[in-house]
C-alpha cells in the first residue's frame, strides 16, 4: 500500500504545483481520487483560491467518488469560509479513505479536518511524502507560521558576482535562455519585488512575458521616499499588473498623490535609520495575502533582506564574463565580519541554462 500511496501522492503534489502563483492567499493543493487503481477524478485549487482541489476532483468523479481513496496534498479544510469544508464534501461523497502528507497549520484547520473524517468513519492516513509537501507548500506554510511570505532572492551576475559595469550597464549580463527561465519563475510566484535603485536604473516592467502563462504577479517596489521614475513601464503601464509601492513616512505627499492617481497601491511601513524596516514590509505583504515573493534585487535590497534573515531561497544565474571590482556588486554591504554570522544556504539544484549556470539554494534552518 505504501508504494501505491506514494505514487498517487506524487501526482497530487504535481497537480498542486501547477497552481503556484495563482491561488494566494490559499495554498495551491492537488487532489487525486483513485478507485480500483484507476484515477476517477483529479483537481487543482482554482485561480483565486476557489474552488478547492477536492471539490474540483469530486465534481469530475461524480458518482465514481463513492468508495474511492482521496489523495490530497494538504489536510482537507475543516472551516466554513465562502464554501463549506472540503472534509465535509469528502464525507458527503462517501469516499472510503483519505491520504494526505501534512497538517494544515491554520488554527481553523489543523487536525480538525482529520477529526471530521475519522468521526465519519473514513480511514485516514497522514504523513505520506511529508517532506516533499513541506517544500511544495512552503509559501503558504511560511505565511501562516511566521507572518511573512516565503521569499526567493534571484541574482543574475557575472562570474565575479557583479550585476552591472562601473557605468551602470546591466542589460544583459545573462543570455536569453536565462531571462526566459526568470519569467517562468516569476509566473510561479504571487509577486515580483525590487528596490527603488533597480527601478530607477533598469526601468523594469516586472511582468511575465514569453512563457505562455496568463497570470500577472503583483509588482512590488520598495522605496522609502517614493523616489521612483515617473516615466517608464511602472508609471506608464499600471494596467499591466497590480503595482504596490512600499514606502516610509518620509515619502512626500506630492509623490503619494502622483502614484495614487496612477492606480498604485501605497503601503506605508516603518523606517529605520538605514531605510525601510523590511520585516515590517514583508508582514504587510503577508497581511494582504501574499505567500510567495520573488525578489530580483538590487544589491541594497538584497543585502537588507539577507541581514534581516528574510531570504528563504537563493537563485543564482552566473554568466561567463568578469567585470572586475569597479562593477556593481550583486549584494551591497551587509556588515558581516564573522563567518559564523553569515546566512547559510545549501545547494539543491544546479544546471546549465543556455550559456549560463543556474544554481538554487535553500536556507539552512
Explain what the structure shows.
With 365 residues, this protein is of the alpha/beta class. It folds into two domains: 1-137, Cytidine Deaminase, domain 2, CATH 3.40.140.10; 147-363, Dihydrofolate Reductase, subunit A (3-Layer(aba) Sandwich). The protein contains twelve helices and 18 strands. The chain has helices spanning 2-17, 53-61, 86-92, 112-119, 130-136, 138-146, 176-187, 196-202, 233-236, 253-261, 278-287, 299-307; strands at residues 30-35, 38-44, 69-72, 97-100, 123-126, 150-157, 162-164, 191-195, 218-222, 243-247, 265-268, 271-272, 275-276, 292-295, 313-318, 328-329, 345-353, 356-363. The protein has a nine-stranded mixed beta sheet with strand order 11-10-9-8-14-6-15-18-17. Strands 2-1-3-4-5 form a five-stranded mixed beta sheet, with helices on both faces. A two-stranded antiparallel sheet has the order 7-16. Helix 3 links the parallel strand 3 and strand 4 (97-100).
Shape label: elongated
Q: In angstroms, what separates the terminal alpha carbons?
A: 33 Å
- The SSE string, one letter per element, is HEEHEHEHEHHEEHEHEHEHEEEHEHEEEE
The percent range for helix content is 25-40%
Number of discrete domains: 2
Oligomeric state of the chains present here = single chain
Taking the sheet with the most strands, its summary is: 9 strands, mixed
Q: What percentage of amino acids are in beta strands?
A: 15-25%
- Mean pLDDT comes to 93
Radius of gyration: 22 Å
Binding site for substrate: 170, 186, 206, 209, 296
InterPro entries: APOBEC/CMP_deaminase_Zn-bd, CMP_dCMP_dom, Cytidine_deaminase-like, DHFR-like_dom_sf, Eubact_RibD, RibD_C, RibDG_C, Riboflavin_Biosynth_HTPR
Active site: 54
GO molecular function, one term: zinc ion binding
